Automatic annotation (TrEMBL):
Subcellular location, record wording: Nucleus
Name of the protein this chain belongs to: Fe2OG dioxygenase domain-containing protein
One Pfam short name: 2OG-FeII_Oxy_2
Keyword ATP-binding recorded: no
Organism per entry: Schizothecium vesticola
Length: 258
């Protein structure tokens, strides 16, 4: 498999980007989903986590069981109210690498057909052990491409479908194991037709090549050879392109957070 090898500091740490996303497509899923296990280095992971943890308190929104940050602002009526660029620590290295990888062996990257041709919004979620999120779809506010970078710990993302009567099938049809420093991209049918969620558990169980859709793409499948994953705190960075952007918040400053 051809890859782009990027040397970081110290010399022993490398990342491996595919020459084309097609090389990292999760072939057991409907079209299309991609998984890159070593998208960022350990040093980059720690630098981003430090920025997340030291963000101004006003940046955090506390929900019932978890907390989150939105950059550069929240959405109101499916509209991004702040058109400022993302801060440098959310741009580099993630966005530059997303835009550097062809989606199917040609020169076009995964955001080539989106309105702004790049992600303009990042949602940061913190999942402590035992914390999850109900099955849901991301909705119509975004271009149908989601790029999620995982930091700190592994966990399983579940994909669900609805029954013929429209009710949610409570059993996931697929599970994707997301390791620290990995990138998961979902688009196409995986984005539009399926719901995704995370179980509120402390341990992922029954992990194997037969039950994990991206098992053959994992960095360290041997780490889960006993079929379990004990969760620690995981932080996710979800990059998307919001379709509608208003300059109102940027001009007035009333919707800005530090």
């Amino acid at each position: 498999m051809d890859t782009q090898t990027i040397q970081t500091t110290p010399p022993s740490t490398k990342i491996h980007l595919p020459a084309s996303l097609e090389q990292n497509r999760i072939t057991t899923l409907p079209e299309f989903a991609y998984y890159i296990p070593d998208f960022i280095s350990e040093e980059e992971e720690q630098a981003i986590l430090h920025k997340v943890e030291t963000a101004p308190k006003a940046r955090w929104r506390q929900l019932t069981h978890r907390r989150l940050q939105t950059w550069p602002s929240d959405l109101v009526k499916n509209t991004l109210l702040d058109s400022r660029p993302l801060p440098d620590w959310l741009e580099q290295p993630v966005v530059s690498r997303l835009l550097s990888m062809p989606s199917s062996g040609n020169e076009f990257n995964i955001f080539a057909s989106s309105p702004h041709r790049r992600p303009n919004h990042v949602l940061i979620n913190e999942y402590t052990p035992g914390t999850g999120i109900m099955p849901h779809k991301d909705g119509s506010a975004y271009h149908p491409v989601v790029c999620t970078v995982s930091l700190g710990s592994s966990l399983c993302l579940n994909l669900y479908r609805t029954k013929e009567d429209g009710a949610l099938d409570p059993e996931p049809v697929w599970r994707i194991l997301q390791e620290p420093r990995s990138l998961l991209i979902t688009t196409g049918e995986v984005y539009t037709e399926y719901l995704h969620g995370i179980d509120g558990i402390t341990t992922d169980v029954n992990l194997s090549q037969q039950t994990v859709a991206n098992w053959n793409l994992l960095r360290s499948p041997s780490q889960f050879q006993d079929g379990t994953n004990e969760r620690q705190t995981r932080v996710s960075l979800t990059y998307r392109d919001v379709l509608k952007v208003s300059n109102l918040g940027s001009k007035l400053g009333v919707f800005r957070r530090p």
